[in-house]
Design brief:
The protein is of the alpha+beta class. 32% of the residues lie in helices and 22% in strands. The chain has 11 helices and 13 strands. It has a 9-stranded mixed sheet, with helices on both faces. A hairpin with a 3-residue loop joins β12 and β13. The chain is globular.
Length: 376
């Protein structure tokens, strides 16, 4: 027997601290001045390239980002550090990533009218895990107080949330779970090269959560039935981060630039946008959902121009902000959480029998799309 599955609750945890573009640029440009002064002789000799300054207008034009939320801004804005300060915790303390996951999860459970022990499974799906093991999902399971069930971690970079939704849907449909928590605790500030002008403005921190359950069990007042899910991957080096436990096995790579986020932005834009638009269009067609009936697209929030191009290709015309909501300006790119922030903040205004698409995309390349219909 195959069960119909609904999204019955969502949650969003947002850090207290923000960094505006102006604050970021002031700190970055101070770093640039110090770097160029410190390396003046090598720059003069042609052994090093001088760094160029950044500016707020460039950042907003290039990305659509105006600010970002972060767990710690003081370390990021310190020109001598350019990295967040997040204290290490003992093994007896709840880890920072599990802590923010639980905060988003509890909100999602409240929205769904459930308790932790109503869940059967926890999936933690995000771009970066703070450790190799034990699985973050199992720690979240314990921190929530679940006395049964199972959990595991998964990583498909910025597409992790939609891949996580399909994994949860599959578990419910095959009978291995009745209710699944899928959570995306993204501490992106810790994997970003804040000293790199091309990307220092891109990321922020956040955690999102989604409750998936059998349609017949759901009691919340806001339910979105999942009509279909589709995943796609195609290998590319254009978005990459080489940090991992093998880094210590060859000391030459310790601290190298490739051990943090890096991308070939123009190539990503050119290659990913048509792939995403085609997937959404074909997925809608195969699910027999006319494009004209789609009222909203909750897209991954990486770059405003990407989202505008993708939505235009799908709809055949420019999308309005109501049709393709933007949270990028306030949150920046939050990796897997971006499309879920958009869904969380912009779905309750839509009436019953409204159809929409949640879509995320990123490194891999990876693309995930979820077609939903409001039933309550």
């Amino acid at each position: 027997m195959s069960y119909s599955v609904v999204i019955s609750g969502t949650g969003l945890w947002t850090p207290d601290q923000t960094i505006t573009n102006d604050e970021l640029v002031e700190s970055f440009n101070e770093y640039v001045e110090r770097y160029n002064a410190r390396n003046a002789q090598a720059i003069e000799a042609g052994e090093l390239e001088a760094l160029g300054p950044s500016n707020s207008a460039f950042i907003e034009k290039a990305s659509g980002i105006k600010q970002r939320y972060v767990i710690d801004k003081t370390g990021i804005l310190d020109p001598d550090r350019l990295a967040p300060r997040i204290d290490e915790r003992t093994d007896d303390e709840v880890s920072i990533q599990a802590e923010i996951a639980v905060k988003a999860a509890k909100q999602a459970l409240d929205h769904a009218g459930l308790t932790a022990n109503d869940l059967d499974a926890v999936l933690v799906a995000c771009s970066n895990m703070q450790r190799a093991y034990p699985a973050m999902a199992v720690e979240v399971q314990a921190a929530l107080g679940m006395d049964h069930g199972w959990g595991y971690d998964m990583n498909v970079a910025c597409s992790s949330a939609t891949f996580g939704i399909q994994a949860g849907v599959d578990a419910i449909r095959n009978g291995s779970a009745r209710r699944v928590l899928m959570v995306n605790p993204e501490i992106c500030s810790a994997h970003l090269a804040w000293e790199d002008r091309d990307c220092h403005f891109i990321f922020g921190d956040v955690a999102t959560a989604v409750i998936l359950e059998r349609k017949e069990d759901a009691t919340s007042g806001n339910q979105w039935e999942i009509l279909g899910t589709r995943l796609q991957t195609k290998f590319s080096n254009n978005i990459r981060n080489n940090f991992g436990f093998l880094n210590r096995a060859d000391e030459r790579g310790v601290g190298a630039r490739d051990k943090l986020f890096r991308q070939e932005g123009r190539k990503v834009f050119k290659e990913v946008c048509p792939m995403v638009a085609e997937q959404i269009s074909s997925h809608l067609a195969d699910t027999q959902v006319p494009v004209e009936s789609v009222s909203r697209m909750w897209l991954h929030q990486a770059n405003l121009s990407m989202n505008e191009l993708i939505s235009k290709r799908v709809l055949g015309r420019p999308a309005t902000r109501e049709e393709a909501p933007v949270i990028l300006d306030a949150y920046a790119n939050t990796s897997s959480a971006g499309s879920m922030i958009a869904f969380h903040k912009y779905n309750e205004d839509l009436p019953v029998d409204t159809k929409g698409v949640i879509c995320s995309f990123g490194a891999g390349y990876s693309i995930g799309s979820v077609i939903v219909n409001r039933i309550k």
